[in-house]
Each structure stands twice: as C-alpha cells, then as structure tokens.
Here is the input.
Amino acid sequence: MGAKSSMSKGISEEPQALQRAPHDLAVAVDPDELEAHDRKWTPMKIAIWAVISLLGGLSWVMLAVVRGETVNAIWFVFAAICTYLIGYRFYSKYIEKHLLKPDDRRATPAEYKADGKDFAATDRRVLFGHHFAAIAGAGPLVGPVLAAQMGFLPGTIWIIVGVVFAGAVQDYLVLYFSMRRGGRSLGQMARDELGVIGGTAALIATLVIMVIIVAILALVVTNALAESPWGVFSVGMTIPIALFMGCYLRFFRPGKITEISIIGFVLLLAAIIGGGAVAGTEWGTALFTLDKVTIAWGIIIYGFIAAILPVWLLLAPRDYLSTFMKVGTIGMLAVAIIIIRPEITAPAVSEFATNGAGPVVSGNLFPFLFVTIACGALSGFHALIASGTTPKLIQKERQTRFIGYGGMLMESFVAIMALVAALSIDRGLYFAMNSPAALTGGTIEGAVAFVNGLGMTGVNINTELLAQTAKDVGEATVVSRTGGAPTLAVGLAHIMQQLVGGPAMMSFWYHFAIMFEALFILTAVDAGTRVARFMMQDSLGNFFPKFKETSWRPGAWVATAIMVAAWGAVLIMGVTDPLGGINTLFPLFGIANQLLAAIALAVCMAIIAKRGLFKYLWVVALPLGFASVITIYASFLKIFSTVPGIGYFAQNRAFSAALADGKTSFGTAPSVEAMEAVVRNTMVQGLLSIVFVVLTIIVIITTIHATIRAYRKHSNATSEDAAVQSEIFAPAGFLLTPPEKIVQAQWDAVPVAKRPKKTGH
Amino acid sequence: MTVSVGGGAGFRLMLGERARRVRWWVRALMGEDAYDKYVLHHESCETDAAHPLMTEREFWRDQTDRQDKNPQGRCC
Here is the structure.
C-alpha cells in the first residue's frame, strides 16, 4: 500500500502527519498544544505543587533536622512520595523535552513490528504493572535492610535522591533508546555504540555479573531457610504447587491465568499454615531441619533441573505466583505502614557510618552505603529488562517516561518500605539477627554479649527478647539470621500483626514474608540461569558451532551445568565462609549491579554524544560519573585496602601469614581447614573484583573515546530504526491531560470497527 | 427520597464499572488477555495461509515454547 511507504521517511526529524485518513483522527497531541498546556500554570496547579513541595520539605526537615527520641515512619513515606512527584513532574519532563524528544507520531515497535505475540501494544497501566513486576525483586528488599546499620538517614537520602537522578534516569533512557531501536538488547546496543572491544567487555561483564547476582540471591534464601523446618516445608511446597499449576494450564484450562493464580495463592497460604503444623511435630522437625550446606546443595540441584525443564512446567506458573504475591504484598505493606505509622528508634547516622566497623557489612558510608543499597536507588540489572520485553510492548513513545522513570520510582518506594520495616524492630534485635555467627557464636547469650559489647547508645538487649522473638515467629532462633530476608520478615510481621491478627499471627506473617521473598528469588535463579545458559551457548558456539543450536539438548545441558557450577561454587563458598558469608559477599553483589549500571549509562552516553546533544550530556554523565567513582573506588578498596575487614587480599595475606606461622586458629576461623577456606575464598573474591573493575574500566574508556570522537566530528548520527507513521492514539501518563482528553474523545466517537486498522507485518 | 435512591443506583453502577475495570487490569496484568490480543491482531492482518489462526490451546503452548527459546531475566 502506497500510504504506508510514503509515510516511512527514514531517519529524519521531519514532522509526520498528525491526522490519519479517512477519519482525520489525531494519533498524537499537537506538540505546541502539549507545550502550552505544560507551561500554563493555573492557580489550582500552583496550589497543588506548593502543597507537595511544602509537605516534602517538612518531611525532610522532620527526618534530617528535627530529631527527637524517635521519628515517625510516615515522614519517610511523605518525603519519598513528594520527592518522587517533583522528580517525575519536573526532572523527567526536562529529560523528555531536551534529551529524548519522544514523538507520538512515530509508531513504536509494538505497532510497526506487531505480531500479536512478542510485539504487542499494551495498555500503559498494564505495562506499568508488568514492568514493575519484572524489575522489582529481592534486591530492593535486602539492601536497605543491611544498610540500616548506618542509621536511617544515609540510606533514605541515597534511595530517594539516587532514584531521581540516577536509577530512574537509567531505566528511562535505556527503555527509550531500546524502543527507538526495535527493542534491541543492551548487549547489542553496546556493540553498536562502543565497537567490538567495548561491546565484548560489556557482554562478558554482564555474564559474570549475572552469575554473582544469582549466587548471592541464592545465598539470601539459604540463610533464611537454614535450621527453619517451617520455612523449608512451606517454600519446598511451592515446587509441587507450581508443577500442578503448570499442568493445569497446559492440559486442563489453557490461558486461565488469574484463576489458577488464585488457586495457587490459596495453596501457598495452606502451605504456610501447614508448615507451622509440620514444624510443630517431631517428625517434621527431624525431616525439615536442614543446615546451610544441605540447603545450598538443594538450591543448586533445583536450579539445574528448573533451568532445563520446559518453561510451562515450572517457570511460567512460578512467574504468575510471584507477580501475584509481589503486587499484592507490596500494596498491603504500603497500606499497613500508612495506617500503623511505626515509630523508628534507630539513630539518624550511626557510628558505623564513619568507623567502617559495622558487623553487618564492613566499610565506611562512602563508598559502601552506595553499593550495599543498589536496587532501589540505581540498579544496572534493570537495563536488561528495559531493553528486553518492555520496549516491545510500549504503545506510544511518550509513555516511556511513565513506564521507565515512573516504574523505577515505584521500586524505590519498595526499598523505602523495606528500610522502614527493618528500622521499626528493636535496634539490639537488628544487630543480633544480622551479625554473623562467627561474632555471636550463634547463641542467645553470645549475641547479647556481642551486641551489648558494641557500645551503641540506647541499645541494651536481653536474652528474653531474643527468645521471645524466636518463639513469636515460630523459629528455633533469630540469632545471626543474616542476609536481610529474616530481618525484613520480622519487621513486616511486626507491622502486619498490628493490623491483622495480633501477636498470635506473627509467625504466620513472618513465614508469609519469607515465602514472598523466596518465591521470586527462586524464579530469578531459574530465569537467570536460563539467560546465562543462552549467553554461554552463544559464546561456545563460536568455537563449536553445534552449541548455537539452542534446541540441541546435550548442548543445553552442558551450558546449564557450567552456569550452575559457576554460581553454585560462589554460593557454597558463601555458606561455608568462616567470616560469615553475606557480609563479605554482599558488597560484591552491589558492586556488580552498579558496574552493570555504569555500563548501561555508558552506552546511553555514547548514544547521546553521537546525536550531538552535548549541552544535555550532564544528565547521563552525572549518574555515570557517580556510579563509576563509587564502584571503582569500592572495588579498589576491596582489592588494595590493607584493613583485613575490607580488603580481600589483606584478609588473604593475614590468614596466609597465620597459616605459615603454624597457627591452628585465627580471628573467627577456629581450625586450619577454616583458615584455608578463608585464604581460598578471599582469593576468589579478590579476583572477581579485579575482573569486574577491569571490564568496567574498558567499557568506560571506550565510551569516553566514542564521546570525544563524536564531539570532534560534530556528530549527528543515529542508530535508530527508520521512522514509521503511527496509526493509533493513547495517552502518555496514568491520567489524561486536557489536550489528551480532546483527542481521546474524538477516537471514542468513532465505532471500533471503523477505526484505522494496521496492515500487518 | 427519590434523590437518595437515584444516588444509590448511580453509586452501584459506578461500583460495577470500578469492578469491571479492576478485573480488566488484573486479567491484563497477569497476561491472561494475550490470546484475545493475538486474535485481534490476526484479524487485522491480511489472511495468510502460512500463518493460520492458532486455537487457544495451540497459542498458549506456542507462547511458553517461545519463552523456552528466548529466555528473559528477572530482576534481583
């Protein structure tokens, strides 16, 4: 058809038709009208923004300046929401207007590549939910909990300010650039923009980072389930539940997803309640009380089997369950925090922020706060989602701001809620739970002696509180339950029981929270292994072409086994680490995630530089510079620091020297084997740090090179797909603006059957 | 009196509308409308012998099989 080809103007900035024959329906709001609406400040609009600004300002004053004995959690909620609104309305609009310039007259990949399957225009409110469910996982729940040892203020500022200027910007830019390139992946964009060296470094870094992230997520679950018969039973039951759901959808009622998700959810609740009963019996305790090493092996075997089973059997139903749980539980927690408004007794800034001697994660606020809280403020992993499924489903270009920037603000809010939940529990209890067993001895008495010995003002814990808490949540002990998940679960249970059920329900809520986290960590482990397996097969395929055939089963199994062995080794290293595991490995997780963010931002910067938009380059240079400084500095400390608690190699030297001196115990390692384990672990961790930082420096150097070259050439190049005329209309944000309402009304007036139809692929 | 009855009916109607919208959103969020969207798309294309319309069962099988071949990461 002539109309279509004449509309395809190739790469151009020329305006395309606003109206479409035969109905003369506008496919976009006139940009001038849009601009006029944005610039028109009615008294009502001024009043609303004045109230938001004042409330936000007041909340920050309450948090940062007015510090009484306690601070109410509601101020965290207001400070976050008001800052998000201002960031969304002003900063993301600024980026939209000057940097990205979306054009709703251009069709998105979901429209011009529509196939009714992978590329399918999806309502913005639905896609927001999809995108949020895909980006939010255990990360924003765990990091803030661990960072709570430095007090409430540093974490709060980083989560809220960081998301506005870094995290949400990254997600928005990557989503937009990928959408303009037909939904291309981050790896492909890196190769296009940075050349073979930068692109290959980015690809290898992504693969290694994926392995580390899967390993540490698995470590979090392992720590939460160890010595917990209730948790092992209820989380273990999710496997048969998912298998049942998979078969139901495959053979019995295909497509009835909501129905089976509700059935699955009811079964999950039954598994949680049943877990309590089982753990109460003698045989249940005997059968399901497993130590960390056994659980770690269980997860490794599970990970391998899950990743080679067909998607429909285990992964797809697990996905439905975890979406259901995620959206539901997060909504529930938000409501509970607003109604209960817990008082926070933690200090604004604790001594561990400056002396670097915190037992939860070691190191000073700068840079370790910024790597401990990765997800929630800036998460490189999101770049893989924002250049994966979401750009193929976007209906209109201007919706990328709502989905990309707005979706990340939502995740940041989840991180704030996790921080509030962790801060709302007794400070002494917090340290008893999060200090490694190497320091507390794993006993109530040991924990009390250790925590009270830390000499923190206002912290005085006793054995009764620890024993009572363990009894309340239905666990044998709460001492040294590191990894963040159990702490968050106690916090959530503490808040939720005030709303529903009272103290008697505390154990239910605790295990509900553990289930909630375990569910999507296990999904992430399965999916992460699959993605890594494909990357591995692709790489192996360069040497053994047969591996490129993804349907070749032996190849798939070999590649899966390699990836599982890689993360499994790190996991086993973490659970057997005499130094504690989480506290030494978690910084690696944060560094890996932030380095991925640096890579994603570097790719964005190269794209912007090639477009010649140097005046606004700072929008991406600012978060890129910050993420680079933080992660490279943190990596250097991990590599070169002479303090054994911080530097991997310093620790390695200390233990090697002790072994050479013929000592049979050193520090927290009670035996020669344990000392040898420390020497081995620190060497691996140190080498991983070197690999990460070298790869990232390569990517950043190639980016700077590309940027300077673009500047010298006065580049105006683009790697975007050719522009195609759009034939559909949809509003950009959650609510319709007045100019959008006018266009929408015109569309609503035309019967559906008579609206323009796409001519297909 | 009549006013309050009218208001009640209007309110019930609004509730019905709300419930319908929530149901639509949950269904779409869970991805349950994928087949409907596929059929709509298929109808809007010119009929193509190489791509006959899949039945509902075939479509869902095809969907998970495609995920097998093209895995997507979940976030941390």
In short: Chain B has two domains: 1-30, 33-70. Residues 1-7 of chain B have pLDDT under 50 and may be disordered. Residues 33-70 of chain B form one domain.
